[in-house]
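User
Class, as today's exercise, I want you to study this protein, comparing sequence with structure tokens, and judge whether sequence predicts the tokens.
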Amino acid sequence: MTVTDRFLQYVRFDTQSDELTNMTPSTPGQMTFARHLEEELKKMGLSEITLDDNGYLMASLPSNSDRTDIPTIGFIAHLDTSPDMSGKHVSPRIIESYPGGDIVLNPEKNIVLRPEEFPELYDYIGQPLIVTDGNTLLGADDKAGIAEIITAVDYLQKHPEIKHGKIRIAFNPDEEIGQGAHKFDVDLFGADWAYTMDGGAIGELEYENFNAAVAKVTFKGRNVHPGSAKHKMINSIRIANQFAIMLPRWETPEHTEGYEGFYHLISIEGTVEKTVLTYIIRDHDRDRFERRKKEFEHLTRKINNEFPDCAELEIKDQYFNMREKIEPVMHIIDIAKAAMERVGVHPVVVPIRGGTDGAQLSFKGLPCPNIFAGGLNFHGRYEYVPIPSMEKATEVIVEIAKIVGEKR
């Protein structure tokens, strides 16, 4: 079975995660998919297969080398798709050779994937692409990664002339809601280091990510009939708006790139009596990240000076930049670069403007940079994946195993 065959099969599982259920996995479809993969791994004859009640699936490809000093390496991908858009009844379509120009995803709804809006399409002219029908996301994030890992392991099984050490693989739930590594048993996994196959375009290699926090600011008001509200009403919505406009206008996702951090207002829930603003705070630099959190404390005090006891702030750290955990073991980045170069892929080392399970796993003692899975425009109807990118990602996994098996 090819990586494309597997991918097309996997995207038909509805595994959209949900941060409101307070369960692990957060949705039953993820466990259904995990059980399907468990059976596939059993049929392949892998060893040490475990699937726990929280939906964490692990397995091993045993070493086929006489050497006993080869490190155990791991490859990880996540089961869930983003809550941002439905992943139910995904209907993928293959464009055999993208000719350039617009791709009509859904003629009835006039949903069109246009290179003017997504210029990366120009990089894939002449290549086969898998696209959506415009009604759902595709699920390349991260079912492409799962397909690539399993296909690479299958290839290594069928080519025993490639000597490698023990390889561990894992598929976990709820990455998209920031909980994928929370119940990941690093000791059970038992790898010296690992790679998440969860990046974007071909060539991406990432070992830096945002430091991340979520901030919730609650504003208390007082509701009085508007006809007699003078000097009595306290409108929490207006106070919340006052808070929001005090934050720097240009330090938002739509105005930042690269290593630039931001404040991102992700939800507003409000009435006159009570309004809640929820933000995510992001920055690659730890000092700037801490200053951003301090700015929220400063603005909350400022609001409370004008409206006593009106505003209450809650800040919770989510994850930190894995760079500090990867830099002491940079040889694992060198290995990934070498593997890409061997298969004709130019490594593009970029910071992640987000987070991955690898960030949290790195802080749990498993250094875990991120490698491209090949998809683009994740989390929406315009998501697509070039088939050659998935094939190259599969080859990179094989080459990493080969390089680690060669090194002394």
